[in-house]
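Class prep. Protein, please:
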Amino acid sequence: MLSLPRLGAAPSRPIGLSWPANGRNAVWLPWVLLGALGLLSGIIVAALPPFAALVAVLGAIASAYMFINPLAGLIGFCAVATLLPFGVIPVKLGARLTFLDAVLGILTFVWLLRLVRASGQVRPHGAQPVLLRRFTWLVLLWIAVSSLSFVTGAGFGVPHGDVIRYYLKIILATILFVITIDIVRERAAVRKIAASLVLGGFAASATGIVLYFMPHGLAGRLLSALHVVGYPSGANVLRFRVDFNHAERAIATSVDPNVLGGLLVLTGAMAVSQLFAREHVVPRWLAAASSATIGLCLLLTYSRGAWIAMAIALVFMATWQYRRLLVLLALAFFVFLQLPASHTFTTEFQSGVHAKDKAAAMRLGEVKDSIRLITRYPFFGVGFGGAPDRDIYVGVSNIYLQMAEETGIVGLSLFLVTGVAFLLVLLRSLPGIRDPQLLGIALGTFGGSIGAFTAGMFDRYFFSYPHDIALMWFYLALSLAIVAIDQRNRGDAPSTAALPATA
């Protein structure tokens, strides 16, 4: 009888699929699979248009490599989430899958397969620390509650295909937390992922800046060219402030300026941490260029919630470890205020704080309507479709209220317990990290996580868009994985005093 191992158990072999060590299968099986891949590529090239065929062949090769090495899948996730978050595979495979769907789907499949393969095998490093196992169960419990909300919400009406697909995307994005802490067990893996996040943020912000300063017609045509991978096209691809001098807003390939702002908060925290870290994983000149480019692009998004989130993330990192950053931030802010261009940004910020513009006023109205919905359906929410009553609607620019709307007070409470436990564990664990390189990366992931929690107060993209949901859980998982790796390397047992006894 097959028995599944405990979640978080360490495999006895390297992560990923491996060929048999003995027997004739070890000789011919790889060649058979390679031949099958070649045959499939030939069929694709013959059946599809040139561009779609090229994307499909490259995707098949990348998918095969992710099956062998899931760490490559995590790095691929970083690339997709930062550069092409809404890209759709230009080949219809029953349904239109996005690149993100494919990457997360492969990672989930390989992770489940590893659980089966690890059953009953000797664990060279033992099981994962209790710290990680308890967080794993907290996240899985949240998924279970959200599933109950989805089912009970379906009682208001049969959910159509779009609602089902949307919910499945949320589950895939959330379960990335569990997959990440199971895959990321070595210092080298953390280094590669951190470098990927810095490079991805640099590329995304540079793209946003270039498109911003281009003539509108040329920028619109370039963005419209992405329609071959499912992006919007036409005259409305660029975004402008409706009630503030009709100023253009940077969007890069994130479609929405606020969504881009959230991405830049996460990658910006990582870039700044590498700029000031005692031991860095990317050259300092690249970290400096990335930090400056991300900062400028973040200003050009006019995303006020992202500005506040980034400021809080940087202040936390500065007061915790990087005192020079605190001085630099104060100096940069003083110089910025002396520039004529600063008037535009400060006026925009003040308008939002005092709710003088239309966008800020609409957000206040959303909060009132959201509270009305939550009081009507308090326990498990209304699920992930529309509202059951005509006089209310689902949607508010706040991830906590949005979560309460869709998963109820129960789902929100579980998320808050997970978030508070995460903050307590990291605050207690950061001073004990002795590896300076891991400490620098941990400050970046922790700072980015604090930025995400803060940005969630002002917008909902961290609970509405799959790539943003996945990035938030990814940063939380990386932070905890770094703590576990450092403690294992020092031979210490992880502290669990701050974590509720859920397992």
